[in-house]
Design goal:
heterodimer; A: alpha+beta; Ubiquitin-like (UB roll); Fumarate Reductase Iron-sulfur Protein, Chain B, domain 2; 2 domains; 5-stranded mixed beta sheet; 8 helices; 33% helix; elongated; B: mainly alpha; 3 helical TM bundles of succinate and fumarate reductases; 9 helices; binds protoporphyrin IX containing FE; binds iron/sulfur cluster; binds FE2/S2 (inorganic) cluster
């Protein structure tokens, strides 16, 4: 695609702090290169706001290469914008046309309260992870990498589940603000590996209990999470979580 | 999490929906099969005999009680989930993805279910009340008729002719079957996922079966009032 400079209108959610009601603010931006990333475009806007002695727009970002999961933005009704399998930092301005109006909102979920502007608090995910998203290892010397044989099929499925970057797009996209895709990825990645077996049943029960406690909704299987996940985590993992949960709840000695 | 909390957890509530949903699907198969006897074009003889069997067999009558219990569990849990789902996003998005990321009927199970509930009330009032409660509680009893098996049975066929001679009733029934079709188009495959049954070996087959079931069964039901209205109304 040929390089182009875009003139755009941005409608951005501005909110002073967690208790402020918040509102949309409209900003014209001009001369945006189609080669910029969406966050670079936001940087350009912020530079302009700073030069005008206005408060810049707060947004989360870290790696800017699609692996940290920080850059949560709901762009024109889509988590991380219109491209499939991409984070906001990997979304490029060639996805838009000259003259477009772009609406930018924070993730909306009671379990992800807005801290400021586009920044939300995703520590509920950390607490779910702490409830069971780990394995026990023996202390002492590190073991040989391929000490324990793992079936290739399982290794691949576990690896695909482990690709989850905890970005929260699944929650943002779900009509119930359900965290099932995230939790299912975390539970699956260990359930499929021999190293994950000792805590297998407690993990499923405790992570689901924490998920409910944090105020995420239940799963209606609409598939919006999978459609929006930047790591294309499969909803097959949700069925596996349901299986793990039923096994733990009905068959194990836990609980 | 103790054992009773399993059922009140977010996944447990969905397990209730999935189990009762599949059970209701199995009921629909029997119900559609029995009712299809009306197409025999024999003045309702086969249909009346089939209905008499369903009403007098103790196993079926026991299943009827389990069916009502399952239906009530499905309705209450379904409505409770629908209300609960609305509480997890207090501030709505200004721009929504519409049908770009999910199907409209997948997002409308509560609405489609409520339409089905309204239909069920009308439907039970039309047929279940007179056939089971007729003669008591001041309910008009059904007419009786000799059938070819030599028994005197309720003439449910005549009741059907009476109800389906009204155009608005036919329209309500046909529209309700539209709701059922969409409820099942999502629900059939969703129930299997909810119960953990998802695998590349058989999920494509379940999905195809679900689509076929969701179209054929409601279409068969919808054909019944239309058939009576066109060919056998009073
Ligand atoms: C014969 C009638 C019905 C059949 C065969 C049926 C079947 C099903 C099936 C198979 C599911 C999928 C369960 C799952 O996702 O695990 C479902 C879901 C659902 N049903 Fe029904 N249903 C019927 C009537 C009703 C009625 C009367 C309501 C009343 C309110 C209702 C409300 C719901 C709701 C809200 C869900 C979605 C729950 C969720 O995933 O969040 N259904 N139904
Ligand atoms: S499952 Fe996908 S959308 Fe959800 S947190 Fe993980 S990477 Fe993000
Ligand atoms: S900033 Fe790290 S994934 Fe986008």
């Amino acid at each position: 695609m040929e390089h182009q400079n875009l003139n755009l209108t941005l409608k951005v959610w501005r909110q002073k702090n967690a208790s402020d009601a918040g509102h949309f603010e409209t900003y014209p931006v001009s001369g945006i290169s189609t080669e910029m990333s969406f966050l670079e475009m936001m940087d350009v806007l912020n530079e302009k706001l700073i030069a005008e002695k206005k408060e810049p727009i707060a947004f989360d970002h870290d790696c800017r290469e699609g692996i940290c999961g920080m850059c949560s933005m709901h762009i024109n009704g889509r988590a991380h914008g219109p491209w499939k399998g991409t984070t906001t930092c990997q979304l490029h301005m060639r996805a838009f046309n000259d003259g477009d109006t772009i609406t930018v909102e924070p993730w909306r979920a009671s379990a992800f309260p807005v801290l400021k502007d586009l920044v939300v608090d995703r520590s509920s995910f950390d607490r779910i992870q702490r409830a069971g998203g780990y394995v026990s290892v023996n202390t002492g010397n590190a073991k040989d990498a391929n000490n324990i044989p793992v079936a290739k099929e399982n290794a691949d499925l576990a690896f695909a589940a482990a690709a989850c970057i905890g970005c929260g797009a699944c929650v943002a996209a779900c009509k119930n603000a359900s965290a099932m895709l995230f939790v299912s990825a975390k539970v699956s990645q260990y359930a499929l590996l021999p190293q994950g077996q000792p805590e297998r049943t407690t993990r499923a029960l405790n992570m689901v209990a924490q998920m409910d406690k944090e105020g995420f909704g239940s799963c209606t299987n609409t598939g919006a999470c999978e459609a929006e996940c930047p790591k294309e985590i499969s909803v097959m993992n949700i069925a596996r979580l349901n299986r793990e949960f039923m096994n733990a709840g009905f068959m194990s000695n836990e609980g | 999490m103790n054992f009773s909390q399993i059922f009140t957890s977010s996944i447990g509530k969905k397990i209730v929906m999935g189990v009762t949903g599949i059970f209701l699907v199995s009921f629909l198969m029997v119900h559609a099969g029995i009712n299809a006897c009306m197409f025999a074009n024999d003045g309702g003889d086969l249909f009346n005999r089939a209905a008499h069997f369903m009403g007098s067999n103790w196993l079926i009558r026991t299943m009827e009680i389990i069916l009502f219990a399952g239906l009530l569990a499905h309705i209450f849990q379904g409505l409770a989930l629908t209300l609960d789902h609305k509480t997890h996003r207090p501030v709505k998005y200004a721009v929504n993805p519409g049908n770009e990321t999910s199907k409209w009927y997948s997002r409308s199970m509560g609405l489609l279910g409520t339409l089905l509930l309204m239909f069920l009330i009308i439907h039970l009032y039309h047929f279940w009340t007179p056939s089971r409660l007729g003669g008591s509680f001041g309910v008009q009893p059904l007419a009786e008729k000799w059938v070819s098996s030599g028994e005197m049975v309720h003439d449910l066929y005549a009741e059907m002719q009476e109800e389906f001679s009204e155009l608005w009733v036919v329209i309500v029934y046909v529209l309700a079957m539209g709701s059922l079709a969409y409820h099942l188009l999502h629900g059939f495959q969703s129930a299997f996922r909810t119960l953990g049954l998802s695998h590349k070996k058989y999920t494509p087959t379940i999905e195809k079966l679900g689509v076929a079931f969701s179209i054929l069964v409601p279409a068969l039901f919808a054909a019944m009032p239309v058939y009576i209205y066109l060919f056998h109304k009073n």
